[in-house]
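Researcher: Next entry in the queue.
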Amino acid sequence: GDLIDGMLVVMGFFAVAVVVATALLYWYTRCIRSTVMVILITVVAVIWQMGILATLGFELDPFSILVPFLIFAIGVSHGAQKLNSIMQDIGRGTHRYIAARYTFRRLFLAGLTALLSDGFGFAVLMIIQIQVIQDLAITASIGVLVLIFTNLILIPVSLSYTGVGKTCAERASHSASSIEEMH
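Model: Structure for this entry, 183 residues:
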């Protein structure tokens, strides 16, 4: 009973994290469609992480239960970068499909490098001969590997179909050009 009660509390905190991240991303983009897309794909990454862990026979313990929060935060961060790039391209008049392709080409290698660095950083924790830390390392590394697919590939592909709102694209393009003028 205590374990189930604790899990419900953690799920409640995760729901609060999703709401806060959604509100912040919407505040930045002012586009509900693309905000929801990024948040949903990042939540899918966390769900896939949990499914892969269960398939491999791992269970979340009290220490590794926070890893899905970490994966969600990393995923929203990478998703916001992809979204920002696509918004700027669309704001400059690029078709959403082409904008997604440009974003994929521009950010894939940098994003892959960052996520692989995160994954290897977590995997290094495996050398610590404490089972709880090793489980945490495996859990986090699997989550980062899932983000490579969901955030580097699935977000640009999804946004190539949905695009972003015209107002948010124009705003992003205007913000980018204002920054360029300052330099």
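Model: The mean pLDDT is 88.
Researcher: Noted, moving on.
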